[in-house]
């Protein structure tokens, strides 16, 4: 309980710093014992859904590899020769369980199913296509897409170019490491000279870079979660910083028997840890799309469809994936200036 109180105090302190700096707060309590404030770069279940959960979870073993080797994949609710307005929506190709290309080459995930359901109840004609997240928001800003939905968090920089929907998922950073490492990496000092794995363009990457400003660590960047997990499993890296739901989904594949979540969902201090649908600013048509998305999301939450989709992809987390060690970590707030890139 002591460490939880320290974390709460640190989050409160960090939030004050964020507000005073007019920037976004990014909490980071882990083995690394830090709270980093910064921005990201551009970057009771229904039985029918529960029955699909095992199949969905199994996709985690192949989703990332399929996305890497295949062409762009799209889903649409209109035929190719449809003559009316079709909204072009961009999403990630390797962000399971939110958006990914599965072993059969099909675009799947929470974001894909949520948008499809919203489009149905709001009569939105759309085409959603997979893309590399590293360039997704640049392409949204350039007009290739009318909207983007790929587990995208709020940042002050992004808010200059895009309008955000209501949040559709509350996320947080998780820390993944081998079980035996949880007894070693218990303080800021213990992280000295260690290697931290991150996925390019993620909150975890920002947090690692923030820590690197205060002490000597090596950061290894990967293009997908599977590769970063494997790096920790093989000893190439000492730990991984990844969004909690993504870490859970990948670990449930069973490919990483030595890994556990040492620190699960960290306390949420604001919009920076929530996922949103984005549209370009100063675009009247896009504002219509955004309004329809918000209305459709509200309907899904009310009628229970939202919960069904989430639980289909993210069932209860097995206790074996969570570390049994509860290190007493003293948290210290840190500040990282917001980057210049989208």
UniProtKB/TrEMBL annotation:
Indicate what this protein is called per its UniProt record. Transporter substrate-binding domain-containing protein
Where the record annotates domain Solute-binding protein family 3/N-terminal, the positions are 86-317
The family line of this record is: Belongs to the bacterial solute-binding protein 3 family.
InterPro entries, per database record? Solute-binding_3/MltF_N
Q: Which SUPFAM superfamilies match?
A: Periplasmic binding protein-like II
What keywords is this UniProt entry annotated with?
A: Signal
Gene3D superfamilies xref list = Periplasmic binding protein-like II
Give the signal peptide, or none: none
Against SMART domains, the record matches this protein to:
PBPb
Q: Which organism is it from?
A: Candidatus Anaerobiospirillum pullistercoris
């Amino acid at each position: 309980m002591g460490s939880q109180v320290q974390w709460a105090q640190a989050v409160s302190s960090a939030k004050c710093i964020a507000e005073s700096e007019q920037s976004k707060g990014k909490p980071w309590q882990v083995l690394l014992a830090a709270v980093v404030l910064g921005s990201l770069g551009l970057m009771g279940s229904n039985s029918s859904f529960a029955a699909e959960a095992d199949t969905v979870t199994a996709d985690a073993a192949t989703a990332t590899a399929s996305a890497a080797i295949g062409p762009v994949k799209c889903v649409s609710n209109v035929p190719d020769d449809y003559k009316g307005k079709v909204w072009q929506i961009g999403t990630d190709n390797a962000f399971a369980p939110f958006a990914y290309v599965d072993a059969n080459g099909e675009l799947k995930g929470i974001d894909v199913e949520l948008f499809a359901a919203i489009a149905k109840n709001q009569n939105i004609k759309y085409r959603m296509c997979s893309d590399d997240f590293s360039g997704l928001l640049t392409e949204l800003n350039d007009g290739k897409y009318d909207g983007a939905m790929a587990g995208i968090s709020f940042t002050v920089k992004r808010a200059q170019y895009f309008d955000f929907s209501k949040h559709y998922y509350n996320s947080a950073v998780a820390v993944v490491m081998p079980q035996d490492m949880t007894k070693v990496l218990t303080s800021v000092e213990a992280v000295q000279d260690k290697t931290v794995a991150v996925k390019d363009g993620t909150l975890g990457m920002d947090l690692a870079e923030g820590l690197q400003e205060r002490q000597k660590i090596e950061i290894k960047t990967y293009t997908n979660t599977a590769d970063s997990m494997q790096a920790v499993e093989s000893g190439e890296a000492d730990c991984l910083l990844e969004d909690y739901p993504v870490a859970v989904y990948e670990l449930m594949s069973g490919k990483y028997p030595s890994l556990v979540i040492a620190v699960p969902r960290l306390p949420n201090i604001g919009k920076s840890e929530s996922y949103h649908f984005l549209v370009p600013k100063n675009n009247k048509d896009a504002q219509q799309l955004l309004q329809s998305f918000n209305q459709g999301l509200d309907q899904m939450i009310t009628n229970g469809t939202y919960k069904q989709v989430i639980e289909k992809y993210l069932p209860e987390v097995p206790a074996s994936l969570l570390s049994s060690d509860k290190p007493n970590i003293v948290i210290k707030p840190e500040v990282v200036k917001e980057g210049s890139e989208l």
